[in-house]
Each structure stands twice: as C-alpha cells, then as structure tokens.
Amino acid sequence: MGDRPLVEFDHVTKRFGDMAAVEDLNLTIAKGEFLAIMGSSGCGKTTTLRMLAGLEAPSEGEIRLQGARINDLPSWRRDTPMVWQSLALFPFLNVRENVEFSLRMRGIGGAERRRRAADWLDRLQIGELAERNIAHLSGGQRQRVALARSLVTEPEILLLDEPLSALDAHLKVRMQSVLADLQRQLGITFVYVTHSQSEAFSMADRVVIMSRGRIEQIGAPREIYRTPRTRFVAEFLGSSNIFAGTLVDAIGDGAQVDTPSGRLRLATSPEGFATGDAVVIAVPGDRIELTATLPDAGDNAIEATVMGEEFVGATATVYLEAADGTEMRAQKSHADLEKIDIRTGQKLFVGWRPEHAHVLPPA
Amino acid sequence: MSDQANTVPGPSNMPVAVWGRTRRPAKGFSLYGATFSLPLLVWQLLFFVAPLLFLIALSFWSVRNFRLQPDLDVASWLYVYRSGLFWETYLRTLAMAGFAAMLASALAFPCAYAIAFKLAEASRRWAIFLMVIPFFTSYLVRVYSWQVFLSDHGIINAALGSIGLGPYTMLNTLFGTMIGYLTLTFPLVVLLQLFSLMFVDRTLIEAAHNMGAGRLRAVFAVVIPSARVGLVIAALFCFILTFGDFVSPLYLGGGNPPTLSIMITDTTKSGQQWPRAAVIALTMIATLLATAFAAVGYAYRGRGR
Questions:
Q1: For A221, what's the count of Cα atoms within 13 Å in the CB-facing half-sphere?
Q2: What global pTM score does this model have?
C-alpha cells in the first residue's frame, strides 16, 4: 500500500566482458504484485533476477530495495530468496533440514526452527515428507520443498527463475495455480522469470518483455496481448498477424494502409502518423474470421491459401499464406473450423473488423 | 513404400540388430565381460590373495634354531598379542597415521578449494600439473633431501641461525616424520579433494548465499557436505599410505620409538622371526580393511536413505 515501490532498477546495466546482458534497465516493482519477466534465452531476464538476488553486481546504475541502495549488499545480507530452475535443494540434507537452512544461517534456535519449518511444510501440504531424503521425492514435491525453503523466513519478495520448466505439462498447470494462490494469500511480491508465455500470462499482474538486454514492453497480460508496442513483442507472442505498409488517406475517423497484401482499413486514424508514413499493424489471431466467400464490405479481407493446421488443446491454429507471401495465422475453436471444412491448399478469405487491428506506435 | 523399406535386406537393418544385442542386460556369467575383467582377476589372485594366504600360513609356522619350518603353531600370535610393546607401537602408528590424515586434509583443503573455485580454467590445469610433478621423483629421494633441510646443521637451521634463532632439533622427531608423511601424501590429498570439489554444484553454493550463509558458512554448510565422499576418500588414502610407511618414520623420525613397519623389519632381522612379522602384517592389513570399510561407509552415509 505504501507509495514507495518495493524494488527500483534505476538505469541498471550489467556487462560480462564486452557483452551487455542488461542495458539501461528502468523498472519498478510494487509491493505485493506478481511480476513476470519474459523473453527468449539470453534476453537478460535471468541476469535481472540475479542482480536482485545479489548474485551479480550491476556494472552501472542503482538497484534499490525499499528505497535503500543494494548494489553492493552481498546476497546473504538481503532477504531476497530465490527458487532456482534446478531448485538447488541440498541433497545431503533431508526435507526438514532443507527448509530449516535459512533459519539456521540466521541463528534461530532449534525448537523455533523446527516449528516454523513444520508450519511451512504443512502449508504446502508436504508435512508428512519432513524426514524424507530429497532424492526420493517427485518433481512436484521437490517444487514444494523449494518453495517452503524460500518462504520460511517470511520475506517481502520471492524470486523465481523458471521453476516449473522441468515439470510435465499437467503438473505445470497445477503448480501454476499453487503459485498464484500462494502469492495471493501471502500478499508478497513475486518476480517470476520465464520464457513461457502461458506461465507468464496466466499468473502475472504485470508482464515485462525483454529482448537483448532491454525492456520491450511492460503491461498487464491482456494489454500486451491486445496492443503490442513493438514489432518484436507482436512477433514474440506469436499470436498476431503483422502487416507492414504505408498510410494513405489519413482523413477523418478511418484510415487505410497500403500493404503488399492489399489495402487494409483501420477504424481510427492512428496517432502520430501522417499520410505516407510507414506503419505496422498487428491483428490478434483469435480475431480473424475465415470464410469461403468474401466477407462484409466493411471488413478487411485477404485471400490466402491454407498451409497447415496445428492443434493445441481445444483450439487450432490455421496457417495461411497470402498471394504476396505474407504469412498469417488464425486461432479458431474446433467447432468454428467444422463449419468450413479446411483442407491444405484451399483458398480462403482471412477477414477481420477494422477496430480489431492495432497500429504499433511509432518507433 | 514403408513395406518395401522393411523387406530390403542390407546394412540399414544391421545397426538395429547389433544395438539390440548390446542392450541386453549382462546378467550372470558372460564370456565377453569375463575377458575384460580377467586381467584384474588374475592380478588380484596373484598379488593379493596368494600372498595373503601365504602370510596367514606363515604366521602359524615355527622357528627352531633360527630355522623356519612349516607348522600349525599359534605361538607367534600369542607372543605378539601378549607383548605390551606391540600394542604400544600399534596405537602409536594408528595415532600418527590418523593425525597425518587430519593434518594433510586440513592443510590441503584451502589449497584444493582455491584451485577449484578461485582459479581460471587455464591456471587450474597448471596447478593440477604442478601437483603431479612431485611424483616424478622417488619418494625415498625426496625424504633424503629433507634430511639436508631438517638436520641440526641443515639449511633451515642455518637460515634461522642467521636471524638469531635456533638451532631446533627437527630430524629424528615426530615433526620430521610428519614432514615426511606430508611429502608422501599432500599432493595426492590435494588432487583427490580437488576432483571432488570441482564437481560441487555451484548453484548450491549460490543458494546457500541466497539463504543467508556468508562465504565461510557456505563452505562448512554446503561445500564440505557436497564433497564429503571425495574428502573422506582423500583422508583415507593418506591414512593408508602413512599407516604402512616405513621410510619417513625411519629416515626423518629416527625409527625410535618404532612404528609397525619398522617393528616388522626389526622382527625379521632378530632371529628370523618371520611368523611374528606375519602376525604384525596381518594385523595391519585387518586394521586397514576395517578403516577403509568404516570410512567408505561414513562417506556414503545418508545417500539413498
């Protein structure tokens, strides 16, 4: 509730030799929020997390935790517990001893340690595993031990570095809800690094998308999904159709864009652009209508050839190619697809309403 | 199309068949396995089991008029085990080897730790190379050269004398013996510790720091437990080598009071008492086996619980 953010990255740069892993990063993290940092490998997301944990020192800039500069504060003097991708559980200690570890390092007495460890093991529903060897636990159980071990000191913030990537799909979904519930109950800040869009978008309040050491976009999941700010974000999310073209007729409410695939309509004239400017349009794949005949006059339509289909759960992605070679995709439910019996090589109209197209802001 | 591919005979089918054969679990006796383990088996029989059996037989032989004769006599066992000097020497040897193992481990650990965690890859390779170099020269030669350093008028006392210290008696003392023991075992202990420290998961050390452990706490709470097997094996090797060592206690320790190895040579020299020497040797072997089993058991304790 306080006005001051919990964490502030102030023009932070981290270099390894000549390579800048993180460049001029500005980011504030509020108390109690679930923030996901997302990007492909090498984008600097893990380095950002490790700087916050005190495992790397920034080359430039300042990191503040509750207003205090922590650049040079060693990891063991901050309370920023982290859950590793490998979980980093101590194999020579049993479950209880693992959970007690940080309490032991803080000089808390045996009886108190036991009580608090047992309390957290119970909260994560693994109380009966207390005396078990780490090697004899399942993936999900280990996950819970790692969480209990990090939360036992009741920190303000928990850092998670792709903790679910080693789990199978089913368990992953279950642990996602465990994590999201836990964060809501505790009301502490979670900073969650992942390359998985589904993990980030299903759990986080805000998502940070990074690329090559820089932040591409910060925002609520829906906002990023609907209005990607850069071409990178739109392409990275992989769910949008991207058209590059030139703005023509930027008069009144509507506007039109000339693209190699044809002339496309926009519902409103995009801000910051003049006639003749280059623009990039993103259309979310789930807004696309596929029809065998030319759709309503007001809608955009591009004739395209079906290249293939991909099924993931209840939805399918149809891949299409326009006459000029532009690749397009549409996400449809199986029920929708049954209406228009799709075959590879078939010609269809890819249509969408003008208001569903989003113009990327000027670079 | 696929049917055709299946019926085509030739090389494409070969790897599958070979692969299938090698994948079969080798249980029980297989000629293939036996061929490769045979040299080891022959070696063990020839140089360990056969001499051991001979040693056991020898311990029951008797000595009449300085002449050894086959017998089935427990006199040597009784003589040795009733001797106060033997037990005194036994405990001394045990204590010295145990102390050497602890000393070498304690001195080697900071060294191995620095090589494993502080040095860059290239420097680490050089450090390993330097640890191997001592083995180029015979241990006996290295011990002799220590005499030049440690004697009352040796190099160390001369150096100390020039700044008004000493002379100190270092040769023919326990200190001298320990110098010799370290000469024998230190590089080996460093290497064995190093190889186990190099495989300690760095993430575990980071996790320890992340959970409030400072540098030294992390070493004791995470590095040492992670490398326990290697550290124990290193200490065990030091114990085994020094427990049976004859050179250092004799040439640097003066041989008096004796260790068990010196006692064995003394026993054989005085009146051809080979059976008594065999009793001492068998006791040493039993001690080493017991220590080795206990140490390995301790090293792996808690694993797979």
A1: 15
A2: 0.82
